[in-house]
What does this fold into?
Amino acid sequence: MKNSALGLLVFGLFSACSVWAEAAKTCSIEAPVVATYKIRVEVPGGSKENILELWRYNNQVAIRYPKTLVTEVWGKTKNDRLHLVKIFEKHKRGIEYQPLEISGSHDWSVKRQLVSNEAISKMRFIKSAGKGCNLIKNYSKQTNKGVRHLAWLENKALIKSYVESSDQRTSTWTLLSTSTKQQGIREKFRALNSYDTVDYTDIGDNESDPFLTSMINFGFIENHSHGFYDSQGNAVHKH
It folds into this structure.
């Protein structure tokens, strides 16, 4: 009986450790995740909403816009420069941008979490709530244009909510859901990485390509560096 009780105790401790270990994995900022955000912009006379998905898997980040089926797949080179493949899922084609073809900030944290670590460090800490994976740190910053409020999931490196308001405009980001199901996330990146791509510098030599002509006409081709907030706290996201 004693051996049985001891065995059950050991098994219980092992199971608990396994659960804790698994929880720690999903809580890590390096863990695969997909986070879905609602973005609402209000201006005098109206408002509009959009959905953005942030996908992270290994050393890649994908910023996806379900409405247009356009996805930006970001990677980081060995010398900490950014690499971008803009995927047009409807066409199963992509345009590849090398580091020298990407303007703006090459801060990886802007892509990985939509707001740079430096920008957060320049905000005023207000309070924290919750613990573990659900630890939320609240920040605020007053600017000459208005005020910003950030609720930050510290141990997941994810925006919980963000509000930027001024006299003429209020922008609100709300986290709708997250998933850490590795199989689905892995398969998504596998599909994105399987599409045929053309280098940005070669577009001029392929103007007869109907796909490229269409993308140029719709203004989808540019050498830019999207993100939410750069290291100076400047809004640089264009969608």
